[in-house]
Please model this.
Amino acid sequence: MTIALALGLLPLILAVCSLLIRDLKPLRAIGAFVGVAQVVVTLCVSVPVLLGQGQPAFLAWFQLDGIAAWMVGVNALVFGAAMVSAALLLDRPEDMHVSPKGARALFGLAALFIVAANGVVCAADLGAMWVAMEATTLITAPIILLQGTRRSIEAAWKYLILCGVGIAFALLGTVFLLAAAGEGGSLSIAWLTDHASGLRRSLLDAAFVFFLLGYGTKAGLFPVHNWLPDAHSEAPAPASALLSGALLNCAMVALWRIGGIVGQSDSRSLLVNLVAPMGAVTVLAAGIMLVRQRDLKRMWAYSSIENMGLLAVAVGLRAAPVFALHALAHSLAKSSAFLLAGNVIRSYGTVSLSKLSGVMRRSPGLGFALLAAGAAVMGAPPFASFVSEWLLLTHAAKGGHWGILAAITVGLAVSFIAVLIHLGRITFGEKSQRSDAPTTTGSLLPAVLLLALSTALFVLVTPTALESLSNALSPGGRP
Amino acid sequence: MESLTTFQELIGAATMASLWMLGVMRIRSMLWGLAAQGAALGTLVLVRGIGSGAANEVWLGVTVVLVKAVAIPVFLNWAAVRLRVVRDKGAGLAPGVAMLFGAALTAACYFESEKFSATGSSSGNAGLAIAIVLIGLTIMMTRRLAMGMLVGFLVVDNGIFAYVATQTRGMPIVIELGVLFDLFVGVLLAGMVLSRVSKSFEHIDVSEMKELRE
Model:
């Protein structure tokens, strides 16, 4: 109960405040405060579980086991950075293309979203997981609408209907699994894992395919990724950071948990033969699509698709520490990248790659930060994603999955070059025409802190650390 | 035994309703079909609840009727009047052909029912539920107006509900209500997005929404 309060109370207070307080200034302060406090409170709850000092806790349909503890931590970090960043960026909402009312809604919806996202990662029951997952869709759809342009309205509709159908497939998967469990069966993840070999095979297979399609849509796996670039590019920047850093992870955690059930059953070959190749193809396809991007935020969005592909490979190969580490590394890097894109919008009024250039000359801080974020996103040292991607590649090589290894390597190389060229073009080169509002270095701070954290993680990940992480994440969460 | 036949009649009625929705293009007619389907499914749970004396199921049945057969269709009708949409022009298959296709789909699913059934029973219920899902997807694919797509989506959801009701002993009631609540909020939200769409695009024709095509 205390844990549920710890994970949900502060954001709910912020959501209520956003309804009651009409003035944006105090609301921004409250938002920033709640963001930081949420990080502290969440880590207080989740770190003991990860260190094995506390038993995993249960509350009705929810649990805080190793993986949940890890992911609520990731959610909180992204939320904290997004809220502080929103508070700093929205001093003049019109610079961010939202109305003052929209800015208030942004705080409220983001807060509600993080509660739902924590619900997804903590769900101990597939039904509860579905309800929380659908809630994340419903809460984030209005955020995409906030800019109010035709493009954002179309993106919101597309998001709602595509993810709606996706999530309906996931519901079908859920009920197939319930049917596969037969008389006396339940949707509790622990029960299903224990009884995995007794599940009716044909229904289990069908259920898994529907789960993969359904939650895969939400995660943006190729070929059901269409909604993602539109939604990410049309949402206000702090919301894009949340979508990419927290929402996509939720869907991947859902797949991870279902993969855990399937891994115990007779259908376990589906993981290596279906999920991992789908992930590898996603990496490759996203890499190729990254080449012809013309918009900074769309570029980050495609890179998110690519990283979800990597996570799907980790799900397929059941590499728990790699999965957790890459989820964190990607969330840190990508949230930071989207928050920096918000700074770009505020200073230059556009994120079009062809209109931007010479960011480095106009505002060196922003330019450096963008390059660093690009390196972190693409998995270059000294950032955590380098370690996690390297671990994933070695894991695939050890298992002898050469096709997957080749596809990921090519995809990563292509996207690395593409992002490097796009970023190089906008950071270096001539000064561009428009820069009305000078960048205040303060608003870069949350993004830079996330990157610093990623670097710290790069140093901290040692074989011993990985070993204990792997223990903490093992089913049951006890080391 | 008697309750079993009622069961199959109700799920048959729900399937018929989805076939009807596949063939009609007037939004109002589609909504009548949706209401009928929701009522059939709600009654199904209600009948089972009364038969077994389970108070949970009775309440769930009543809620389902209220949400799926009354609240959602009434709201969508109100939205359709406000958006001034009367009929869908359709895309892809002509209504008659689509209906034939749906009928063939239903027959195929009915005879292959054991494959979808939890217990391997050949009663056909599981097949009919899956047929509703597939018809719902077909409705989504053969409509041009966003409103028609939304109705198709709701039919898919009804099909899933039919599967839960006939093949399993049901999800925990709280989860079931959570699903219903999510669905209802989703419809409200879709209505809101649609009114924004119609305001800025001056239509809700999905095939004409091209701002984001690259």
